[in-house]
Amino acid sequence: MTFYEKELNRIRRIVYSNEGQINTVIGIRSYIENNYDVNLNLDLLSHIQFVSKYHLLRLFKKYYGLTPRQYLIDKRIEKSKEHLINGISVTETCFAVGFESLGSFSTLFKTKIGKSPTEFQKEQLSRSKIDSKFRTLEYE
């Protein structure tokens, strides 16, 4: 083995020494991405990757800067914005993205976005009407 091969192997061991951890958190993130609309909790997520829930919590926070719960909430809020823009009612949106309470959904949405879901939806609908008027004027 040449000097360069030895150096590459040494560097590879340093850089990828935590590959198992990375695969664990990527797997959990992927699971949340695909199942954000169901009731997820730390116990379930830890069983999916066969890791202690406390270890999972530390790893996820280390690599993503958020707890799995915070990430889940952000994902649900992101998806709820898409639903609201598409004209789905606030109540339907709330349950479609996995929230169990309209009150907690509205509170979290307002905290994260700065507007209530209803205000957000009205604003988006008025924007789309204005955009469509401008497009109509451009083609005339």
Walkthrough of the structure:
By secondary structure, the protein is mainly α. The protein folds into two domains: 1-65, no CATH class; 74-140, Orthogonal Bundle (Arc Repressor Mutant, subunit A). The chain is built from eight helices and no strands. It has helices at residues 3-15, 19-35, 42-49, 53-64, 68-85, 90-96, 102-113, 117-139. Residues 26-123 form the HTH araC/xylS-type domain. This is Helix-turn-helix domain-containing protein. Keywords: DNA-binding, Transcription, Transcription regulation. It holds the Pfam family HTH_18.
List descriptors.
single chain, 140 residues, mainly alpha, 8 helices, 79% helix, elongated, DNA-binding, transcription, HTH_AraC
Task: Provide a quick synopsis of the model.
With 140 residues, this protein is an all-alpha fold. The protein is 79% helix and 0% strand. It folds into 2 domains: 65 residues, no CATH class; 67 residues, Homeodomain-like (Arc Repressor Mutant, subunit A).
The SSE string, one letter per element, is: HHHHHHHH
Q: What gyration radius follows from the Cα positions, in whole Å?
A: 22 Å
CATH architecture of the largest domain: Orthogonal Bundle
CATH class (first level) name of the largest domain: Mainly Alpha
Keywords: DNA-binding, Transcription, Transcription regulation
Domain HTH araC/xylS-type: 26-123
Organism: Aquimarina celericrescens
Protein name: Helix-turn-helix domain-containing protein
